[in-house]
Every structure is written in C-alpha cells, then in structure tokens.
Amino acid sequence: MSYKVSRRQLAKIAGLSAAAMAGALEAAEAKPAAPPRNGGGFPAGFVWGTATSSYQVEGAVNEDGRGASIWDKFVRIPGKIEDGTTGDRANEHYHRYKEDIALIKELGCRAYRFSVAWPRVFPDGDGKPNPKGLDFYNRLVDELLKNGIEPWLTLYHWDLPQSLEDRFGGWRSTETCKIFGDYAAYVAEHLTDRVKNVFTLNESGRFVYFGYGIGIDAPGLTLPQAEVNQIRHNSALAHGLAVQAVRAHGGRGTRVGPAENIDACAPAIDTPENVRAAEIALREMNAGYLNVIMTGGYTDAFLKYAGPNAPKFTDAELKIISSPIDFLGLNIYAPQNYVVASDQGAGFMPLPIPKSFPHMNSDWLRVGPETIYWVPKLAAKIWKTDAIYISENGASGDDMVRPDGRIYDTDRIMYLRNYLAQLQRATSEGVPVRGYFLWSLMDNFEWVYGLNKRFGLYHVNFDTQVRTPKLSASFYRNVIANNAAGV
User: Fold this and answer.
1) Which pLDDT does position 481 carry in this prediction?
2) In the chain, what are the domains?
3) 437-448: pLDDT as tens digits
4) Which among 260, 279, 481, 486 would be 20 to 30 A from 236, CA to CA?
5) What SS3 class is residue 152?
C-alpha cells in the first residue's frame, strides 16, 4: 500500500492551514583525514553527529522484559506497512550496538542521538521499572563514551507503551502526560550522570496528526480535529513536564529541549517583504506546538482559525509547557511552504508546489537546500534562542548495490552537499546553529514504508545484517574532518 501523504505534511498539524491562511570507496576510507580548517567552515566546536531511534533499529521486541508499544500492534494491521515488514528484528541494534558504535566512530562523529524505548524501561508505561531495559542503555552509553562519542538521548520517538493506549487512550489523556514526566524523571536520574543532552519528544507534529488524525501512523486513529488539537496540546504539556523532571532529577549540567519537525517556511524570493512574510508564516504555521512552547501562549490567529476546535487549557498548563529550555532541536528535510507577502489575512500567502519540483526517491522529500538556511535564521529571531541543533536532516536514495558490492549514492551526496552549504552559510552569518545530526546512521525500519526507504550512510542487508558503507559515508567523514561543507 503506497501512501501519497507527505511525511511532513504539517499545514494542519502544528499551526494554521496553508490553504486556509490564503575499491574506490575503500581507498578513500584509507586516506588520512585532512586537518580541520581554521576559517571558512563551521564554527569551532560545532557538534557533528548522526541519529537513530529505538523502534527503528533495536529489534528484540520480546526480549529482556520489554513491553509492547503501539507500533508493535500497529505493524500487524494488514495494509498499514507498505512492504508488510515489522520492527521485530529491524537492525538487531540491541545485540549489535558495539558494532554500530564502531561505525559512528569510523565516520569521525563525536555525537550520537538515540532514543530510549519507553516500554523497554517501563513495560506498562508506569509502575515497576524493568532493570534489564535500563541496563541496555547503560551499556550503550558506556560504550559510546568509551569511544569518545557524546550520547544525546531522546525520551520519546513514538513507541508509546501499548498499555497506556489501552488504559488511558494514550496521548488523549493528561494522565499519560503525567506518567511521561515520571518516566523522564527516572531516565534522568539513572543516565544523566553521563548523558548531558536530552531531547523530550521527537516530532509531535508527526505522531499526533498522523497517529490520531489521519490514521497513517500508530495507533491508527482518525479523530475529529478538536480532539487532534487537544492531543497536540497534551504533547506540549508532556514536553513541559519532561523538562521539569529533567531539571529536578538530572545530573548537574544536563541540558534539555524539544526535537520538532518544524513546518518549514521559506521566502519564495529574498526581498525584505517576503522574508518578513516567511517569518510570520513560520510562527503561525507552528503556532500549535513550537510557538506555545517557546512563548507560553497560543497566537490570536491560531485560536481564531481553530475556533471551536481550539484546545482547552489552563494558565498553569501554559506555564508548564513553556518551562525554559536549553536548546531547540529542529528536524529539517524539505520546504513545506514557499511564501510571498500578502496584504490579505495574516500577511503571507503560501504558494502551490509544482509537480515538477525536484525530490529524492521519497516523493515528499523535496530538494530545497535554502530551507536549512532560512528556518534556523528565522526561528532564532522569532523565538530568541541562542542554541539550535539540526536534530535530523538526511535523504532517502536509490541505493543500488552495484556488481562490485558498492553503493555509489551520489544522489544523497548531492542533497547533503547542498544542504550543508546552506547551513554553513547560516552559521557564517551568526545564526546560532551549534550542531547537526544526520539521519540516519544506517538503513532501518522506516515506519509506514517498512524497509523500502533507505536513509542510512551504511547500507544494511536485512537478511544477513551486514552493514556496508555507502559513498556518502566517505563524504560525511570528509565534511566532519574539515569542519566544512566542502564547497
């Protein structure tokens, strides 16, 4: 079953509706790394990393006391996963983590973003913790540090314990938010003696709308818009409770922030009036999640547009939601909206995306490198943040294994080269982007696409579990070694 809905089609997810608002490879690997550049590249101390998530790579879903997640149930509904696969085995990262950490080290990455599987630590979401689940993450963190790699932990990357969905309706209930806060406190207490950077929820915009609004993701529900808006509010509340929990129970110096697939708006033409329009659009299109986190309130335009479907909330909840954060994580892949100035409505007009617009082998993944320049630049201005991390960016590719056994993914290299050049442009202008996490370390279970879409720097044969570096691995290694985009 093929889905034509964009993976990041977020116009109705976090803010206002756009329509409504008017040989060779081995030799390369053997070469010594070039010395870092002192000028003309990224800032000194820029964090280079890569990323995965628990359900997409770990496998071992029935081992060592792990409970069921909503994705364990969802993948077994006929027709929900394009190729009929599941995350039961995935990359066997649960058992092969040392091998995979060696791959991170080969890239020269000094940081790795991973997520903790909530049902592995608390099989029922709450109640008695599972010590074997925590033990895995202790081993993972220790192995990363042993190899000079800084762990960046994500508390939630969509694998909600099924028990919470059954008992409380999952994110439909604030009871789940409170339990998430307790889970965050437990993880912080036990891991932040070594883990100093914690992301709260990954992509609220995706898991709320796709999971509860249009039924494409787990738990596969299609609820009325008023309920979807309330669930999004609840996810923001859960974020705030997690921030407070990390503050209260985390080790000294622990930093915390969200990782959101921001509805990416860019000016169609770089004139002052269009840049201003893009700024307004970025705020309003993200008014239902990021903006309320960053400002402590919903915008008037958002509440007017939502009307009777607006979420119910209290001042106390808004105070929790807007608990101060240390950094802002932005997942940036493709332009969601190109906008121009308008004297109608909110002051901006989203433009239609032509069918001929270039894209990667995932049709939703349009190639718009300027997006990673404009979005952090405007976000820093709107929300007055001085620490932004690109928590995800990457591309699916054709990734054909050639007769010589190699993968010459020049399409992915093209995408990364152009995006990183634009990110370098941003940092050279003083935009406070402090680091970049490439999605993904290796091919994995890509949610509704199953194993069909490959985003990794390392090719994975899911039958043999052999990892093979793609040409893009050498490209990224060179970028890191030079601390520059190479253009």
Assistant:
1) 98
2) 24-482 (3.20.20.80)
3) 999 999 999 999
4) 279
5) strand
